[in-house]
Write a structure and sequence with these properties.
Blueprint lengths: L2 E5 L4 H10 L4 E4 L10 H11 L3 E4 L13 H22 L2 E7 L22 H16 L3 E6 L2 E2 L7 H9 L4 E5 L3 E2 L2 E2 H15 L10 E4 L6 E2 H15 L7 E5 L19 H7 L6 H14 L2
Length: 298
C-alpha cells in the first residue's frame, strides 16, 4: 500500500490504527474536525486530493441511544458517507476497509452469528450501519467489511472498560445487565487483525483476493455483568483505585434504554480465523493487555 486514508483517526480504533498503519505507507489521517462525514462533497474532495490506494473507514456515529432521535445524522455518517467512500474507491481502483457492528443482528439466535446470517437490526444505529454495508457492497468491488462488537481500548473518550473503572472508583455497588451476551473486542487485537489482512486484499498473482464481510471479535462469550466483574478483578490486581465491593446482576428490563439492544450478539469467528491462519486471542487476554497499558500511563 502506498497511500492510505484513515478516517475516524481521533477515535479509539482510529488512534490504534494510526500507529499500526504508519509503517505500511503514507498515511493521511482525518477526524471529524478535518473531515465532516455529514458533508458528501467534502468526502469526495478529500479523497480526490489524497488519491489513496486504500481507505480504512474507522469513523462512525456510535451514540446508540442518541441515534434514536438523531436518525438523519446517524444515517448520513453511517450509511451515506461509507457509500460515497465506496463510490470514490471504485473510481480510483483502490480498496476499502470498513468497520461495522454486531448490532446489524436482532439477537434472537443462541448460537454465534455467521456472515451468511440475515441481518435484522432492532435499533436506528444498527439500521444505519446495515445501510452502510449495503451501499459499500453495491458500489465497490474491492471492499472488506469487518463486523466487530463491544469495542474498547486505551484511546478515545469513553468505552465500557473506562466507564467501569471511573464508576468503580466512586461507588461501592454497581448494577450491570446480565442478559445481554456478546464478546468484547480490544482495539489492539482488532488493529493487528486489519494489518494481517491487508496483504490479502492485494494478494500475489494466483491467489484469490479477500473480499466481502468478515466477523472479528476476541474469542469467548460473556454478559456485560461478567465483563464488569472481570474488569474489576484485573484492575484490582494492577492497583487501580477502586471503591466497588459488589456488582449486582440485573435484567435489561431493569435498565431501560432509548435504543433496544440485541440479547445475543456473539459473532462467529470461523471465517476470520481461516483468513488470519489463527484464532483471535481470548477476550480476557485483550482486557489484561489494555488495562496494563492504561495503568502504565497513570
Amino acid at each position: 500500500m502506498k497511500r492510505i486514508l484513515l478516517t475516524g483517526a481521533a477515535g479509539q480504533l482510529g488512534q490504534e490504527l494510526q500507529e499500526t498503519l504508519t509503517p505500511l505507507g503514507e498515511v493521511t489521517s482525518v477526524d471529524r474536525r478535518t473531515l465532516d462525514l455529514a458533508q458528501p462533497d467534502k468526502i469526495r474532495q478529500v479523497i480526490g486530493e489524497v488519491k489513496p490506494d486504500l481507505i480504512v473507514n474507522a469513523a462512525a456515529y456510535t451514540a446508540v441511544d442518541k441515534a434514536e432521535t438523531e436518525t438523519e445524522l446517524a444515517k448520513s455518517i453511517n450509511a451515506t458517507a461509507p457509500t460515497i467512500m465506496a463510490e470514490e474507491t471504485q473510481r480510483l481502483g483502490a480498496a476499502l476497509i470498513h468497520i461495522s457492528t454486531d448490532y446489524v443482528f436482532d439477537g434472537q439466535k443462541n448460537t454465534p452469528y455467521t456472515e451468511e446470517d440475515t441481518p435484522n437490526p432492532i435499533n436506528t444505529y444498527g439500521q444505519s450501519k446495515l445501510l452502510g454495508e449495503e451501499g459499500i457492497q453495491r458500489s465497490c468491488e474491492r471492499h472488506l467489511i469487518l463486523r466487530t462488537a463491544w469495542v474498547y481500548g486505551v484511546y478515545g473518550k469513553g468505552n465500557f472498560v473506562k466507564t467501569m473503572l471511573r464508576v468503580g472508583a466512586e461507588r461501592e455497588e454497581l448494577r450491570v445487565v446480565v442478559d445481554q451476551v456478546g464478546t468484547p473486542s480490544w482495539t489492539g487485537d482488532l488493529a493487528q487483525a486489519i494489518i494481517q489482512l491487508l496483504p490479502q486484499i492485494n494478494p500475489e498473482p494466483g491467489r484469490l483476493p479477500l473480499r466481502g464481510i468478515y466477523h472479528f471479535t476476541n474469542s469467548g462469550a460473556i454478559s456485560w455483568y461478567d465483563f464488569a466483574v472481570a474488569i474489576f478483578e484485573e484492575a484490582q490486581q494492577l492497583g487501580f483505585p477502586l471503591k466497588v465491593r459488589r456488582v449486582v446482576p440485573i435484567t435489561t428490563l431493569e435498565y431501560p434504554t432509548p435504543a433496544p439492544r440485541p440479547a445475543y450478539s456473539v459473532l462467529s469467528r470461523q471465517k476470520i480465523s481461516t483468513a488470519l491462519g489463527n484464532h483471535p486471542p481470548h477476550w480476557r487476554s485483550g482486557l489484561r493487555q489494555m488495562l496494563r497499558q492504561l495503568y502504565s500511563q497513570k
